[in-house]
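For reproducibility, we list the full input for the 2-acetamido-2-deoxy-beta-D-glucopyranose complex.
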Amino acid sequence: MRLIIITAFCVLLISCAHSWQGETVQDLHAEYSNIFKYGNRNAASHLWSTFILNNSASMQPSQVELFFSGFCAVSGSPVRPNDYNRYLLTLPLVSGGDIKRTGAMHYCCWPCVCDTQDFIRVDTLTIPTIDGPRQYHFAVVGNPCENEEALHKPFHQPFYGGRDTTLAQEAREVRCVDGKLAGATMSDHGFVIISMFFDLPETDNNALTTTTTEGTQPGRVSDYNGVQVQHEREYAGWCVDRANNGYNSGMGEIFRKVAEISPIEIHQRLDL
Ligand SMILES: *[C@@H]1O[C@H](CO)[C@@H](O)[C@H](O)[C@H]1NC(C)=O
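The corresponding predicted structure, in tokenized form, follows.
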């Protein structure tokens, strides 16, 4: 009997030591220095993701989802999720065949919409939760370690005063070990998970309602089947301007450089 109690106590201790007991998004943010060992979150949202996935087995699915809404997939910055920073996007699934999925992501700032459209795709992964395995959709990018030399190629950084640098310097958490991105969790088709692609409620007749449907209006919040979102299309014009200005706004510049090393190519299912 005593042995059983001691054993149970040890098991409890071990599981406590190994799983993180956060409850709020602020608790996740407090782990920053444990997650980013080199102190730089540039293009490193794969580490936020792995930190949550490392601990998902002891979380309710709703907690997993909450924590994934606590950072920006593009900039890596901590985010306080709310109705004004939830963006609706329709992105290609990596499984091919020109199939797209509509979902949501929380961002620090609007330019992430443009960077998402250019580089982020959607894939699945089944993860353990306290309620058993759950399949989720995740935001994924290509593995930069497929072309590791690109991380060490000098380039001119025109912003913040201008200087010559490398991605290895600017995105210090992006490290390759034997062709793998260190600390990354890969999706079902082998891409780097950088956040969750949140489900939105679906109805037979998916409805987007805005006070005025005319034109585009960055910052406008719409209702999508009962959920408040900013629709990606509001930013179409701003994304074009930003591209014309060399992507000079937002924190996505380093993200873009890392994501374009090995962009995800989706093969069309053509019956030839
Ligand atoms: C995830 O868990 C592995 C194995 O315990 C650990 O090496 C890694 O540092 C963890 N990653 C993060 C981001 O917490």
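The chain is about 25% helix and 20% strand. The two ends are 69 Å apart (CA to CA). Both points were considered when choosing residues for closer inspection.
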